[in-house]
Amino acid sequence: MERPCVRVPREAGERTRRALADADLVDEDHEIVVDDDVIYLPVTDPESLSGDYEVVYRDVPAHDRQRTPADLLGFDPSYERLGDVAILDTDDSERADRIAQAILESDLPVRAVIDRASKVKGDLRVRDWTVLATDPDDGDDRPATETVHREYGFEYLLDLAAVYFSPRLATERHRVTESVAADERAVDMFAGVGPFVVPMAARGATVVGVDLNPAAVEYLRQNARRNGVADRVTAVEGDVRDVAADYAGWADRIVMNLPHSADDFLDAAVTLAGDDCVIHYYDIQHEDDPFGPGEAAIRDAAEPAGYDVEVLTRHVVRSYAPHELNVCLDVRLSR
């Protein structure tokens, strides 16, 4: 079907598209066409264009628009996606079932829909889930709660019913791991399935990941292999306070992402730290003084052991609850 299009040289295509989009004139229902060195940009109202644009009529294909859950429900439902699993958080079982069926009937690449059934609980930091719906045509025999999450070029296999994982911390993990050097020795004291460990190892560091949860440790080993870094990763099951003596004075970098109780593990972190070590210490504190308690706790643990403490970064990760912030202190310990 012929549609009005703005015809421009290829090198001017993106600049022109942005200008048309700013004027709300881009025809989103039809595709942009590239023909040799010329681009055809479909527009909605050619009469509104200034004489600076060359308008022609030509055949352009319509977008093959995906059917969304909102198309089927008549409203935009709230859900998250982790890999091929959709996650709801609602106490209304009838509404949850409606949304689950719509998600599976839509064109989203989802094989299961689950609903949060409890808060994170216990030392292993896991929660209960209700499986609302699964794709009957899916031949996969994995648990409905198991999926593969992709983040900054890495893949993480995990089972939400067996391990703790938050995709919302992806940007923070990337911030930290981008600062890792190839010759470093790093310890993740609460490693989970490896979202800090794997990218640090991919940058050439030698990494020890410790976790109390045996399922998380097994997924960590699988994810190290999946991402091609198993030769630089050691996964240890256990309480890091018991493990620390085995790596005393070893670490150039330590990740302490257990924000509700990281201060209970600072003595272990000091044991692990080498003569010059950066610690990424996560905390949750009131907005009136989000960094002070963590900094004081680090100094109380490190200075008696002969370390100078230098705070490199005071960083707000996200809002955690009303008037509470999830923060990170990047701190250098130097003997």
UniProtKB/TrEMBL annotation:
Biological process (GO), any one = tRNA N1-guanine methylation
GO terms under cellular component:
cytoplasm
Q: Which UniProt keywords apply?
A: Cytoplasm, Methyltransferase, S-adenosyl-L-methionine, Transferase, tRNA processing
- Residues forming the SAM-dependent methyltransferase TRM5/TYW2-type domain are 79-335
What InterPro entries does the entry give? MeTrfase_TRM5/TYW2, SAM-dependent_MTases_sf, TRM5-TYW2-like_MTfase, TRM5/TYW2-like_N, Trm5a/b_N
Looking at the record's lineage, which domain of life comes first? Archaea
Keyword DNA damage attributed: no
Q: Which PROSITE patterns does the record associate with it?
A: SAM_MT_TRM5_TYW2 (PS51684)
Record flagged with keyword Cytoplasm: yes
SUPFAM superfamilies (UniProt xref): S-adenosyl-L-methionine-dependent methyltransferases
- Protein name per Swiss-Prot or TrEMBL: Class I SAM-dependent methyltransferase family protein
